[in-house]
Every structure is written in C-alpha cells, then in structure tokens.
Amino acid sequence: MTWLTWRLHRTEAAIGVLLLAALIGIMLLAIQSVDAAYNAARAGGCFDNGQSILCSERLSHYFGRSARWSTLTTLLHGVPLAVAALLAIPTLQELERGTHRLAWTQSISRRRWSLSRLDFAAGIATLVGIIWAVTAREWRSSILRDEEQLRFGQNAFELSPAVLMGYALFAVALALTAAVVVRRLVPVLALTAVGFIGTRIFTTFVLRERYAIRSKKRFPPPTTWARASHSRTAGSSMKPG
Amino acid sequence: MTTALETRDLGKRYRRTWALQHCSLEIPAGRIAALTGPNGAGKSTLLNLAVGLLPPTAGEVRVFGAPPADNPAVLSRIGFVAQDRPLYRGFTVAEMLRFGAALNPRWDDEMARTRLGRLNIPLGQKINKLSGGQQSQVALVLALAKRPELMVLDEPVAALDPLARREFLQILMDATVEAGMTVLLSSHLVGELERVCDYLVLLNAAQVQFAGDLDTFAEGHRLLVGPRAAPEEIAQVHHVIHSTHTDRQTSLLVKLNGQGYEPRWDVRDPGFEEIVLAYMARRGEELEMAR
C-alpha cells in the first residue's frame, strides 16, 4: 500500500521537491544579499550614528534591499496552494480514469485505501509546513533584525510553524474534498484557490478584527527581579500578526 | 449445490430512475453465466452491485453468502474486469503486477507472469503503450491472479476485434476450467454467449426476464407466422413474448402452454439468438402485459 501511494505520487513529489528547492534557493540568495548590505552598514557603525554620506548610502542600500526582497513573503503565501494542487492531482487522475474502481475491487477496505492517501497527504503537508516555517523564519530575521518585530510584527503569526502547518493541511484537505466531489482538474484547482484565499481573507480581515485586543507585558531583566515593577500596556492598537 | 451470487429483490435507483428493480436470482457455483440485455437494461448496474462498487437502493446482494461491498474477505474471492478495464496508465505491466500482489493476499504472481509471457506482453512495457487487446488481457490476468472463485466481467470483449475476442474468451474459459471458477459475464454478443456459457440471465428495462439454465431457455418457444392478425387471441392461450407485423403478415414468438394452435399459423422452432432478441425487443406495453 505504501509502495502504491508513493508510486502514484512520485511525479508530483519530484515536481514539488524541485519547486521547494527553487524557493529555498531564492530565499537563501535573498538572505545573503540583505545580510551583506546589513553587515556593511553595521561595520561602519551606521546604526548608532549614521550621519555620514557613506552611512546614508549604506543604510538606504540595506533598506532598499530588504524592501525589494520582502515581496517574497507574498510568494510564501502561495506555498500551501501549490502543495494542495500537487497532492490532489494523483487522486483526481484516479477518479477521472476510474482506477479507483480497480483498487476498490482488490482485497482491501476502502478505509485502508483512503487512509493511506490521507496519511501521505497529511505527512507531506506537515513536512512542507515545517520546512517552510524554518525558511520563513530565517528570511524574516534577516530583513527585520528586531526581536519584537520578529515575534509580534506583521506576518509573525501567519508565518509561525504551527500556523503554516495548519494552512498546508487545510489547503490539502480542501483540494482533496473538491477532487472527490467535482472530479475535474481545473474546477478543483479553482475551487481550492478561491476557498483557501477566501478563508484567509475572511479570518484576517473579518474574524481577527473581532478578537480580544492583545495585551503586552514587559519583564525587567532577572537581576532587577526583586524590585520588579512591570509595565502593562493594555489596549495596544497593534493587531496580532 | 452452493450459490456463488444471490440477489433478493435487489434494486438500484439513480435519482428518480430505477436502473434495476426487483432483481432476484441465484447463480450456482461452477457455472458460466451470461448476462445479456439491450443497452440501458441494467447489466452494468447489476455487475457493479455484485462486486460491491454500488450500494443497493433496495433488497440485497450476497456473494458466497455475504454482502460484497467494502468487505475484503469477500472481495478477495471476486475477480472483476470493469467495462473500460481501468488500469494505471503510467505504470509498467510489472508495476501493475506489484499493485495486485500488494493488495491481494491470495495473489499468484507466478501464474500472472506465465500468462503474460505466453501472450508476449513484455513486463517492462507501459500500460498506455499496449494495444487495446493487450490492455484487456492484462486486466484479465490481473483479475485471474487474485485466484478468484467468482469472476465478474463487464462487456469484456466489446472493444476487441473478432480474433482478440476469441483469444480472450479462450483464456478465460481455460482458466475457468483449471480453477473451477464461477463466471458472470455481460455481453451483447449473443452468439458468443451461447458458445461459452451454460447459464443465462436476461435483463430488459431494469427487470430480470429470465434466469436459469441456458439449455432450458429455448424450451417451449415457438415462432408462429401467419396472416396479419392481432396477437390477443393467441395470448389467451400462449405466452406471447414478442410480435412483429408487416402489411400482410404477423410473426409471434410465443412460449407454449401445452395446447395446439389454429392451422393458419405456420409453426417453427426459433434459434437461441432469435429468442434472446425477442426478449430484448420487448418494450413498455409488452412488459406490462407480461407482469
């Protein structure tokens, strides 16, 4: 069964690995390019008192590169859709050509047949989610350089590992459901894209507006623990994510 | 005598149309049963119900005493070749065998390889590079290598040329004799069926018209030809299966009721094919009359 699942998915798996490798390659290039600009600016002490012409040049160089490459983040939002499409294609082909009828008249239960597919899809989605989260984190820490921005800034929530895994699993589940119901490639891909992007827009712009407002706590360093007087900034206007 | 396939008041409805209704039949083990009927009579529906691909809307179907749907214990005893013989097109023949071996506990790999070797089908060849006839053979070998006790084939030879058809049926019959399988195959090719089968199931308009020994099927049928007349008179005595009229002549295919006829009828023994066609040609009102 494992062999069969793998055999049915191997072409799409190869395409997926190539796409993922290309994405990671681009990310590494971007990180390297931004890091180089950052290091040049830091070496000149430009972040402390960057008044000189050289510094303003180096700083604008650094900020320019970060801004240019940060459009990559948009690309990252498309990853779950790509995973979902690649995982749905073998099942679609199976339903389109009727080979599921061949499989279902062998000596196995449909439950086992479906579970082997679902296990594989869930495993791949989780794996891609993890790889994607690690890449995104490296990437963001390279352009942001600020622990607070990294943790609470824009996209911090969207690109955290658990959320990315969730998005990937959700997109895959959506695509497989559409595949079983609609059974034709183009409508399935369209439905998955609309469903996924629609859900994300809805949660980001409608649901999240209604969440409780985040509170922020600042802890003083441990040495001053005894005289701790932590500040609490409630009602921050910053939205999570 | 054990029963391989048994249906009781089996019915299948698609939306508002019954594809099969009130179907009760028993196919004894060891028989080679032909399933025939016009297009849309419910043949494929019956076969798909028999192998558990479709859930019945009404009644029940049992294979070796148990419902086949999603039941690996029963499915391992059934070999099925679907109408369009679905195979994984990107697989090689060897990979199709691996598929069969992975999914079937009673898989006979040696037998599969021997048969394919005899048919000169190379194991390394991709399925989509094989001819239609070869694909049918692979589908048949795949079903046979499960070592089934009941073999179900849906229009297995419809897409084959006469030579490939003969070869296919030959392999099927040899395997049947070797393994003592029960076979249920659907086909339009009435002549072929008479040659290879010993049991007949005749479907028309979603209903079973006849189910029983092929030898007894033709018994008692006569073809009456005479001057043009309405069949009502005859119908009072005999069972009229089908009537055709020209301007001057009426032909009736009847099932005898033990009594004689008026001398104006010319009486003749019809052939097997003629009788089957008469049953197939029955439409609406004749079927209503028969009920």
Question: What does this 3D model show about the protein?
Answer:
The complex is a heterodimer of chains A (241) and B (291). Chain A has 10 helices and 2 strands. Chain A is mainly alpha-helical. Chain A has a two-stranded antiparallel ribbon with strand order 1-2. The longest helix of chain A has 42 residues. Helices cover 75% and strands 2% of the residues of chain A. Chain A has one domain. In chain A, helix 1 runs antiparallel to helix 3, helix 3 packs antiparallel against helix 7 and helix 9 crosses helix 10. With 291 residues, chain B is of the alpha/beta class. Chain B has 2 domains: 214 residues, Rossmann fold (3-Layer(aba) Sandwich), CATH 3.40.50.300; 52 residues. The model of chain B has no long low-confidence stretch (mean pLDDT 89). At the A-B interface, helix 1 and helix 6 of A face helix 2 and helix 3 of B.
Task: Summarize the model shown.
The complex is a heterodimer of chains A (241) and B (291). By secondary structure, chain A is mostly helical. Chain A has helices spanning 2-43, 46-49, 53-70, 72-77, 79-97, 99-104, 110-144, 147-152, 161-182, 185-207, and strands at residues 216-218, 231-233.
